[in-house]
Amino acid sequence: MEDCIFCKIVKGEIPSTKVYEDDQVLAFEDINPISKGHTLIIPKAHAENLWEISDEDLTAVHLASKKVSEAIKKALDSVGVATLQLNGRGVNQVVMHYHLHLVPRSGGAPELPITKWEIKPGDMDTIQQTGQQIAEAIR
After folding, report:
1. pLDDT tens digits, 71-121
2. Which residues are catalytic?
3. How far, in Å, CA of 79 to CA of 82, rounded?
4. How many helices (H) and strands (E) does the chain have?
5. Which of 2, 4, 111, 125 is most buried as measured by Cβ atoms within 10 A of its Cβ?
6. What is the gyration radius of the CA atoms in the chain, in angstroms?
7. What is the CATH number of domain 5-138?
8. Domain extents for the chain?
């Protein structure tokens, strides 16, 4: 895709700090990091979101995420890695090319807002009805 910044990174038209690459994926440091070591993993083939990415590329991204997150843990002595993937402008996806964020957590660092929310019980009837609607849509 001509105007996609991540496609331009894959082609080498825009510089990046690469940490991993294979035939299907590229992992590089986010230039607007949430924490030290914040890394993005993308498929080399353009797909806008989870609904468009091929099964093969999705598998490759997540297998790479395991390798990269293990390296993050070793290199940065992180106590955890949050993974985040957004689909669509309605949830603030800014770059319309599938990407998985790996956000390291260091001991003593402030909590990541994406990993903590208020826990309050939901309405079980609504939960069951919604679950049934989703399960029926899968069939």
Report:
1. 999 999 999 999 999 999 999 999 999 999 999 998 888 887 777 778 788
2. 99
3. 10
4. 3, 5
5. 4
6. 17
7. 3.30.428.10
8. 5-138
